[in-house]
Here is the input.
Amino acid sequence: MPAAALNPVDLYDVRSLLSEEERMVQDTVARFTDERVLPVIGECFDKSRFPVELIPEMAGLGLLGATLPHEYGCAGMNGVSYGLICQELERGDSGIRSFASVQSSLCMYPIHAYGSEAQRKQWLPQMAAGKVIGCFGLTEPHGGSDPANMKTHAKKDGGDWVINGAKMWITNGNLANIAIVWAQTDDGIQGFIVPTDIKGFTAQEIHKKMSLRASVTSALFFDNVRVPEANRLPNVKGLKGPLGCLTQARYGITWGPIGAAIACFTETTEYAKQRILFKRPLAANQAVQLKLADMARRITLAQLLSLQLGRLKDAGTMQPTQVSLAKWNNCRMAIDIARECRDILGGAGITTEHSPIRHALNLESVITYEGTETVHQLVVGREVTGINAF
Ligand code: TGC
Ligand code: FAD
Here is the structure.
């Protein structure tokens, strides 16, 4: 009996390892991406516009704060489902996944994990509904890889905190209604919920980006911004606060680039099968097949890595170093594939009529933010040697 044909973007039938609910989540988000993201995303990227009109639909599908409990208006999904959301959104564009990552992992997560019950009740239902948008301010202009060297500070003044400083490269900055701001205090680094319409706060959009063009990126400035004690996240102090959020977001980012790689690989394989050069399909050349086979291999490895990471997360045993390894591997896998696909498309690959150049450019950000590739390599290096090389 001939072997059944394999799915080129799921050679190891990873889908069969998903529960029925996880498959349903994947199919729902895949449909959203096919029907709502893909028709507009090329133009959004060209015009440097984040499609804000998609926010209510993402909220309606339960994609914002998806893993948080129902009692706060969230979908209560597991970690693997959240990963699949990221994968399918990033098959559309990294900017769409970025929006969901920031809202969910970097803003709703800290309010849930470190906030008071009053803060949870005030913000989470509105954020799940997409009515309040958040941004996360950790990186500063003088060096994002070393957030311990933070200059932004908050000083207690009676019952208030007064915040001064600046943050750089902040996703959703000019869209946000609230910013989760990390600041140095006399008692270590602490987090604050800062409404963006408050006196002394300015967000300035960063232009001339060649990457993540369908996403809003901003610089934030705090000039004697005064917030009440009730806006401080009471349940965490120190760098482990923001790093704990990053672990959640980086986990999702291990899945996202798989989607970007699948988009590039699928489009390019079809193109190579259709394009006739030297009287035969481009895909009939060994040199091209080697590249496509290698892409399929790397996508398969990344899928298995993220799924196992998700199972560890859902079992409550996931370690930050495991997240670092997968973020490093999967971003590297995707950017290499996107660039290779751009090459196989030849001249046609340089316009946004085809997705690989858009994904390749986006992945320049994805491999940089949430810890650069080098940072994650050094985290793994520290684990395996026991020596801190930072
Ligand atoms: P280190 O001494 O290692 O740790 C300090 C404290 O934090 C704890 N910790 C973690 N906790 C949770 N998750 C993690 N991943 C953690 N890593 C460390 C650690 O246990 C310790 O706790 P305690 O209780 O002992 O105080 O700190 P370090 O200064 O040596 O850290 C080094 C390094 C380089 C790993 C860290 O600074 C780092 O990760 N740098 C990269 C910064 C980064 O990723 N920034 C991202 C900004 S946000 C962003 O990019 C959003 S993009 C969003 C989008 O658009 O999708
Ligand atoms: P630097 O830290 O200056 O690093 C420069 C280079 O030095 C890198 O190649 C790095 O790998 C290397 N390097 C650093 N340390 C070492 C070392 N010890 N040994 C060897 N090499 C080293 N931040 C937020 O807080 N919130 C956001 O929402 C957010 N969104 C972003 C969106 C976009 C589109 C981008 C591009 C960035 C975003 N960031 C955000 C910031 C992002 O996290 C930082 O860009 C990233 O952490 C790197 O910091 P940096 O840009 O200052 O580079």
